[in-house]
């Protein structure tokens, strides 16, 4: 029956230890070695690690010092987000061109493809799964795991059951029985909070969900609740989202040395994030008037929301708001992290504000600065105070996409 036409066939691609695998690809001496990737060589927490490291008990989120005690041979590598994004983009382009145009980028190392309409051309779903791995190998020469199901949730679930470097097949007519004894919290999208809600109602496994009226889930969680009920039956209705919606907000943040109390250092970090955000707004022809600016302390977040008189894309203007925030809210507490978010990004080609003289000279300076930085690297040209900015690498946003405003690092 596996060779018959599936009414719906979804493929999930999950790259194996993606960042660590790229380090081993680019540096052949690291192959077969335990490798841990951190945010810069001064990073203290492991972002990801190779399967050779995992075999020694090392895991994502472990402190690097603890991991080195567990495995003295562990090789620490600083993250290279630009390289990771480059290969992720190459992989997505290859999948879209050679497997299916119905592609959804789920994260930088995960993707869904709807191959329901590709079966006459490419063969049954299990054959398309094998072809998918071949396409990825040809495009980026990296290991991956592929899951195939009748919906997104079962495809993702069966892929994780066959990691690393495997292929998992779960036909839609087998999904309900296969999921019956699986804990509900093992399905993507069912976090601890929802898990506690379900456990309180006697739902611990996917099979238990059948006894809970779908209306209870809908009343408590809305559409996501009804979707979760169907997910547990192997009937996830969520389609492949090929289009990427414009971001409703756009922000940048950075972790600081713990308990930083120097106002000059904090202001420098805020200036850095102001310039990053302003550059990104200009790159995508967006502008904003409303900004959320915050400092994370051990007691929680300090900060507020601020508005400019007119929409802006100028880092100096945004930095001025951050100075105002510090004057109003910071009282010398140790700071752990800074964050600045544009809450209302919108196209910058709209009608100009009446009676407001545009600063043409400043616009020209920003345009020139962007041109130089795009060619030679981020903030090669920028405010002098940023010469001593943090050398910690940027990170890839969880909402990263190959193109558009979400293509952010």
Could you characterize what this model shows?
This protein has 409 residues and is of the alpha+beta class. It folds into two domains: 1-179, Reverse transcriptase/Diguanylate cyclase domain (Alpha-Beta Plaits), CATH 3.30.70; 250-388, DNA polymerase, Y-family, little finger domain (Dna Ligase, domain 1). It contains 14 helices and 13 strands. The protein has helices at 18-26, 51-54, 64-70, 81-98, 119-122, 125-140, 152-160, 175-179, 192-199, 214-221, 223-231, 263-283, 315-329, 360-376, and strands spanning 10-15, 35-38, 46-49, 75-78, 103-107, 110-114, 144-149, 167-170, 250-260, 286-297, 300-312, 335-342, 346-347. The strands form three sheets. It has a five-stranded mixed beta sheet with strand order 5-6-1-7-8. Strands 9, 10, 11, 12 and 13 form a five-stranded antiparallel beta sheet that branches. A three-stranded mixed beta sheet has the order 3-2-4. β7, α7 and β8 (167-170) form a beta-alpha-beta unit. α4 (81-98) packs across α6, α10 (214-221) runs antiparallel to α11 and α12 (263-283) packs antiparallel against α13. 34% of the residues are buried. The mean pLDDT is 92.
How is the secondary structure organized here?
Layout: E1 10-15, H1 18-26, E2 35-38, E3 46-49, H2 51-54, H3 64-70, E4 75-78, H4 81-98, E5 103-107, E6 110-114, H5 119-122, H6 125-140, E7 144-149, H7 152-160, E8 167-170, H8 175-179, H9 192-199, H10 214-221, H11 223-231, E9 250-260, H12 263-283, E10 286-297, E11 300-312, H13 315-329, E12 335-342, E13 346-347, H14 360-376
Parallel strand pairs: 2-4, 7-8
Antiparallel strand pairs: 1-6, 1-7, 2-3, 5-6, 9-12, 10-11, 10-12, 10-13
């Amino acid at each position: 029956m596996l060779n018959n036409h599936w009414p719906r066939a979804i493929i999930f691609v999950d790259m194996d230890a993606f960042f660590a695998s790229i380090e081993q690809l680019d540096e052949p001496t690291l192959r077969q070695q335990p490798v841990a990737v951190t945010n810069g060589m001064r990073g203290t927490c492991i972002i990801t690690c190779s399967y050779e490291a995992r075999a020694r008990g090392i895991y994502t989120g472990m402190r690097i010092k603890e991991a080195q005690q567990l495995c003295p041979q562990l090789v620490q590598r600083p993250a290279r987000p630009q390289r990771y994004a480059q290969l992720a983009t190459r992989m997505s382009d290859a999948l879209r061109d050679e497997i299916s145009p119905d592609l959804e980028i789920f994260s930088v190392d995960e993707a869904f493809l709807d191959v329901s309409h590709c079966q006459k051309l490419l063969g049954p779903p299990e054959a398309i799964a094998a072809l998918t791995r071949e396409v990825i190998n040809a495009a980026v020469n990296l290991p991956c795991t592929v899951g195939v199901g009748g919906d997104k949730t079962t495809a993702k679930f069966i892929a994780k059951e066959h990691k690393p470097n495997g292929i998992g097949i779960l036909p839609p007519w087998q999904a309900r029985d296969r999921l019956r004894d699986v804990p509900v919290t093992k399905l993507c999208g069912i976090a601890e909070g929802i898990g506690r809600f379900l456990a309180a109602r006697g739902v611990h496994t996917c099979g238990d969900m059948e006894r809970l009226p779908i209306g209870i889930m809908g009343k408590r969680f809305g559409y996501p609740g009804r979707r979760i009920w169907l997910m547990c039956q192997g009937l996830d209705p969520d389609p492949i989202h090929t289009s990427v919606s414009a971001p409703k907000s756009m922000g940048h943040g950075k972790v600081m040395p713990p308990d930083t109390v120097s106002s000059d250092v904090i202001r420098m970090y805020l200036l850095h994030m102001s310039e990053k955000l302003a550059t990104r707004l200009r790159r995508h022809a967006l502008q904003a008037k409303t900004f959320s600016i915050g400092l994370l302390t051990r007691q929680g977040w300090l900060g507020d929301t601020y508005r400019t008189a007119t929409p802006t894309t100028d880092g100096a203007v945004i930095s001025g708001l951050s100075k105002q925030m510090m004057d109003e809210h910071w009282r010398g507490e140790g700071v752990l992290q800074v964050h600045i978010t544009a809450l209302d990004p919108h196209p910058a080609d709209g009608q100009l504000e009446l009676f407001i003289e545009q600063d043409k000279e400043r616009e020209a300076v920003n345009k020139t600065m962007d041109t130089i930085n795009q060619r030679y690297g981020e903030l090669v040209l920028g405010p002098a105070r940023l010469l001593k900015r943090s050398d910690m690498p940027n990170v890839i946003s969880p909402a990263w996409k190959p193109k558009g405003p979400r293509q952010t690092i």
